Amino acid sequence: MSAVNVKTILLKILKWLGITIASILFLMFIIPILFPGTISQQVKIFANKHLAGELDYKKTHLTFFRHFPSLTVSVDDFLLKGSKPFEQDTLLSAKEVAVGINLKNLIFDREVKIDEIYVNDAMANVFVNSKGEANYNVYVSKPSEKPRDTTGTGASIKLDLIKLKNWNIKYNDHAANVLVNAKGLNYTGRGGLSEDIFDLETDLDIDKVDFALNRIWYAQQKTLHADLITRINTNALTFVLRKNELRINKLPLKFTGFVSILKDGYNLNINAASEKTTIRDMISILPPQYLDWAKDTKIEGNSDLFFSLKGRFSEPKNLKPDLKASLKVNNGFVSNSNAPVPMNNLNMDLNVDLPSLDTEKLLLDLRTLSFDLGKNNSFRAVVKTQGLNEMKVNANIKGAVDLATLDAALGLKDIELKGLMNTDIQSNGIFSLDKKLFPKTKGYFKLKNGWLKTKYYPNPIQNINILANIHNTDGTFKSLGVKLDPFKFDFEGNPVFVNANLQDFEDLLYKVRAKGTLNVGRIYKVFKKEGLDISGLIMADLSLNGRQSYATTGQYSKLDNRGTLILKNIKATTEYLPKSFYIKEGNFEFENEKMWFRKFYGNYGKSDYSLNGYLLNTINYFIERKGTLHGRFHLKSNYILVDEFMALKEGDNTDKSLAVTYAKEEHPKSSGVVIVPANLDVSLEANAKKVEFKGLGLNNLAGLATVTKGEIYLKNTTFDIIGSRMGIDARYQNESPITANYDVALKVDNFDVQRAYKEIDMVREMATAAKDVKGVVTLDYKLKGDFDANMKPIYPSLEGGGNVNLRDVEVKNLKMLSAVGDNIGANAFDNPDMKGVDIKTSINNNLIHVEPFTFKVSVLRPTISGTTSFNGLLDFRVRVGLPPAGWIGFPVVVTGTHEKPKIKIFSKTGQGIVEALYNTKSNKVIREEKRAEKKSRAQQRKDKRAQEKNAENAEKQIDKDLKKK
User: Fold this and answer.
1) SS3 for 385?
2) CA 225, CA 203: separation in Å to the nearest integer?
3) Fewer CB atoms inside 10 Å of the end CB: C or N, the chain?
4) Roughly what angle, to the nearest 10 degrees, separates helices 36-50 and 3-34?
5) What are φ and ψ of residue 950, in 5° steps?
6) DSSP class of residue 768?
7) Strand 711-721 to strand 724-736: parallel, antiparallel, or no bridges (unpaired)?
8) Among 48, 41, 71, 50, which Cα is nearest to 153's?
9) Which residues cross the membrane (predicted)?
10) Is the separation of the CB atoms in 520 and 533 below 8 Å?
11) Domain ranges of the chain
């Protein structure tokens, strides 16, 4: 072939190649222009059909160039909210969400088939609340019994590729007590994702992942890489792990097994192993603060890790899987360059078995833990336990270790240890507080000339000497003895010592001597516990000598408890309150059975308090697991703000109970209710100049408050409110951090109606007619009900009743009375004479039932009775008595609402109101009150008698509850 022919052929090839490339580029440019309406419309149809959560996004793009060479529909600033009951919370937000379109179906069938998904720069918040309700149920599939959609409208999904780039994911499962935080997640998944059964190839990288179970962190800031092949069966929603290789930091893990998603949970069979790895690889999964130490330390040896999780998890059926794990370390060697001798022969064999994730069945088997630190420096431990509250124990621990040598061998940077530690303990038997069993035990722990210094504080804790002996001969509490002689140390030039001899834990015989001054603020800085206190001091000079039963049986003369304990500037927290208590000064004096509060001043937020009085049973309280503190105090305060004590309010306390933490996350805008400790039995003679609750001020409060068994009782308590002196008896009990119940009986004279209407929310909501009333009334009323998550009364829960005396009032232009007057031609109804009238009412299920009462309107004598609701519905009977003395009259019926009353003259047939339904267990209104269907007069009278009987029973129950204390 001549050179000319070769040149011609080459030019033709280049020509057609150019035309092809130009055509492809033209098509890539023109297709998004030809089909934008089709694609955009059908994607929206698909979203509306299949998403239960609210979807929002800004700009839409159709292009080949964002994810070349795929034709993709992209949306910017994507936002998807959760499914019920999380409609207001974000499930997923992303800078870009794109779906790849199948070109063949688009061009020839004008159908949108989605086969790729790309999501970039996203934040996902997956949440399951404590009831097991999840926010991710946003995809609504078509019911299988419906015929296939043949209209051709809407998009369909046949995925072959999922690509996620730069995701941050938070998975918070309150039902399972699991928390996972993943940052910098990148994921690529390939496979026929639309098939019934397919293999999903996964490539996953996470920059930082945290994992916690029951608020215990098992992994923090770990990198993770996964190379997985998972067989997925969409019919059974089962995931079979075929090839699953993970790496957590430097530790490799291989997984096998399957996961099945069920309607009420999961079915699991997962096995994981990291075999024939090194101790250094194992250490890489430790918390971040230990990793810098590992970099500069020579670490050798082998390790093996095994893990399995098998069984069903179902919160409704109370099913949980079985967990098993084992960790083996062999021939370990740890040494720092400055160490005189290394840590040699480090061996560990630990096995864990947790059936049904039930800690009461927990089996810990530490078959060996041992190491050597040169001659005469070694440690050996064998420990096996089974159970928790009733724990079988078999332990043998023995060692003699020079802590300075251990410190040097490990190369610890943040802590300096010195001292000679020696221990020898053998224990075998059952430990149970409830059954008062303790393993047969003989042993001691001794530390001589100890020294502890950290990088967080310049001065050490020094001269630490501990000699503790423990013995038990028959496996019961009776033979248990513990002797601490001595425990002493010096800190900041102040010596502290404690001697203790404790015998017979069935009826504890104790002899304790303690003396010293401890700067709590500084000692916590040694351990970097910032914010736990301010600059607190504890000064003790105590001698406690006696037997537990002497106090409980009243043999106080046999007790010899004396001494003082002084606290200054101490900050303390409790798991149920959002803020810290600040104890400015607390002087305590021990006198046999009593712990006297001689001077006790402090504050909680804006609230201040001073206490004088005593506690009983303080020693028993600390000895017994379920002890109750008894006491009597005088409490004085200038100001108490009740709102600050509500459990979900913002505060500095980070050590809250799990129930409070979960309630705050599930009800972020709620204040919660006040939680009452269940282990107190204390009475308080209280005097407070001002108490404020949700904007309502109570002045000069005085009375007796009793806290017992998680309830608060107020007896003969009085206070000034809107210019009147009110007396109340009350009971309060929280049911959870967001629900509470109460009973209250109140009496007040000279109650200014207009001030009450303007200043008290409950009066405005319960007595809407009060806005047209001026003057003073007398109240004698009893109520019981529930508080909601913001500690506001739930009106349908209210029950009770009482009497309102219109002592000196003026009623003008009350719409209901004015409407009656307009219809019968008596303008005097605009300004009736109601002075001295008694109105007896009862309340039940959001309805107020008014018993007949009579008043004057010029020469007329109207009598009113009937029912109204808190939402304004009316069903009243008015008998207009004519002169003389109202013996003869005619009936009027008033229905409608307070704002728009309807009047029927010469009628006795109204229209009843069906009461609301309220569930006391869930604290929810099942049905609001509504207009009843037309009923006969006999049926209406029967309904009214039943409602009044319910209210009467409620009043009796209130009296009964308030008389408990």
Assistant:
1) strand
2) 8
3) N
4) 50
5) -60, -45
6) G
7) antiparallel
8) 41
9) 16-35
10) yes
11) 34-139+156-235, 414-515
Handedness of CA 455, 456, 457, 458 (dihedral sign): positive
Indicate left, alpha or beta for 286 from its phi (over 0: left) and psi (-120 to 50: alpha): beta
8-state DSSP, 645:
G
pLDDT (0 to 100) of residue 529? 54
> Cα(799)–Cα(847) distance, rounded to whole angstroms?
9
3-state DSSP call for residue 198? strand
Which residues, in sequence order, are CB contacts of 502 under 8 Å at separation 6+?
481, 482, 483, 508, 509, 510, 511, 512
Structure tokens at 202: 């996964």
In the predicted model, what is the mean pLDDT of residues 276-290?
72
* Contact (Cβ atoms closer than 8 angstroms) between residue 178 and residue 268: no
Tens digits of residue pLDDT in 153-202: 444 445 577 888 998 989 888 887 888 898 998 988 877 656 677 777 88
Does an H or E element contain 30, and which? helix 3-34
From 37-51, 325-339, 458-472, 625-639, the region with the lowest mean pLDDT: 37-51
Show Cβ contacts of residue 950 under 8 Å, excluding neighbours closer than 6 positions. 799, 844
DSSP state of 558: G
Mean predicted lDDT score pLDDT of the chain: 82
Residue 778, pLDDT score:
92
In 3D space, the residue among 423, 356, 355, 365 whose CA is nearest the CA of residue 392 turns out to be: 365
Given a cut of 80, is residue 900 above it in pLDDT? Answer: yes
Q: Measured between alpha carbons, how far is 320 from 253 in angstroms, rounded to an integer?
A: 24
Tokens of 881: 């008595």
Separation of alpha carbons 819 and 872, rounded Å: 16
pLDDT tens digits, one per residue of 360-391: 899 999 999 999 988 888 999 999 999 988 99
Please give the backbone phi and psi of residue 6, each rounded to the nearest 5 degrees, phi first: -60, -40
For 354, the token pair is 């947790």
As given in the structure block, the two tokens for residue 416 are 């300096």
Non-local (6+) Cβ contacts of 293 within 8 A are: 410, 411, 412, 413
Q: Are 558 and 592 in contact (CB under 8 A)?
A: no
Whole-angstrom CA distances from 291 to 181, 371, 452 are: 20, 21, 22
Evaluate whether 441 touches 471 at the Cβ level (below 8 Å). Answer: yes
The residues that bridge with 518 in the sheet, in sequence order, are 538
Question: Does residue 69 surpass a pLDDT of 60?
Answer: no
> Is residue 105 within 8 Å of 112, Cβ to Cβ?
yes
- Would the pLDDT of 840 be above 70? yes
Query: Positive or negative CA dihedral for 19, 21, 22, 26?
Result: positive
Pairing mode, strands 197-213 and 216-233? antiparallel
Other beta carbons within 10 angstroms of residue 148's beta carbon come to 5
Instruction: Give the tens place of pLDDT for each residue, 239-249.
Output: 777 777 778 77
Q: What does DSSP say about strands 629-637 and 680-693: parallel, antiparallel, or unpaired? A: parallel
Cα-Cα-Cα-Cα torsion 632, 635, 640, 644, nearest 10 degrees, comes to -40
What sign does the dihedral 313-315-317-318 (CA atoms) show? positive
Which of 879, 850, 860 has the alpha carbon at shortest distance from 947? 850
Residue 588: CB atoms within 10 A of its CB come to 20
Taking phi over 0 as left and psi of -120 to 50 as alpha, with beta for the rest, 435 belongs to alpha
pLDDT band at 13 (very low <50, low <70, confident <90, very high): low
Which of 514-518, 545-549, 608-612 has the largest mean confidence? 608-612
- Tokens 């509504």 sit at which residue? 930
Structure token digits, residue 101 = 């379109």
Cis bond upstream, residue 884 (ω within 30): yes
Give the residue carrying structure tokens 């998807």: 80
Q: Each residue of 16-30: b (16+ CB within 10 Å) or e? A: eeeeeeeeeeeeeee
- Mean pLDDT confidence for 455-480: 91
Contact status, residue 108 vs residue 125, Cβ threshold 8 Å = no
Q: How many CB atoms lie within 10 A of CB 843?
A: 26
Give the per-residue SS3 of 804-817.
EEEEEEEECCCHHH
Please, which pLDDT band fits residue 531 given cuts at 50, 70 and 90? very low
